Amino acid sequence: MEVLDARKHEAAKLLAARKSQSETARALGVNRSTIGRWQVEQEFVELVQQYRSDESEIADQGLAMLVPQALKLIEEALAGKDVSAARARVALDVIKAAASITKEEAGTSTLETRLAELDARNPGQSD
After folding, report:
1. CA-CA distance, 63 to 56, in Å (whole number)?
2. Do the Cβ atoms of 94 and 62 come closer than 8 Å?
3. How is residue 126 annotated by DSSP?
4. Per-residue exposure over 99-112, b if at least 16 CB sit within 10 Å of its own CB, e if not
């Protein structure tokens, strides 16, 4: 098995980050067809997949670290504390993403009502 050179590793990282063939080629100073040729090599395909997997794990860990803060903010909003609607919505999105849950499972109808109240009380306010 051929050892991949540094350019191929960099290309794999860029493609894993969802850059196009053209963007990747420009960044590396190679022809777009070179990137296309690499993308049919099994070893290169596996490298791109590995970088995507690594990035996904890092993102999941980062998201998981935000959940306690998000839950606290949602709890405060539901308790009637003065929390901006924008912050509460972001917190709700963090919780949904982390738990991969649907709106019905999260019981967000109560929260959506509370967010509308906050919006009405503080129109135009954002953090």
Report:
1. 10
2. no
3. -
4. eeeeeeeeebeebe
User: What dihedral angle (degrees, nearest 10) is formed by the CA atoms of 41, 1, 27, 14?
Assistant: 70
Q: What is the predicted pLDDT for the residue at 107?
A: 53
Can you give the pTM of this predicted structure?
Answer: 0.50
Structural domain of residue 117, as residue ranges?
60-127
> What's the angle, vertex CA 11, arms to CA 9 and CA 15, rounded to 5?
120
Structural domains in the chain (count): 1
The answer to whether residue 80 is domain-embedded is yes
Q: How many CA atoms lie within 13 A of 24 on its CB side?
A: 24
pLDDT of residue 105: 43
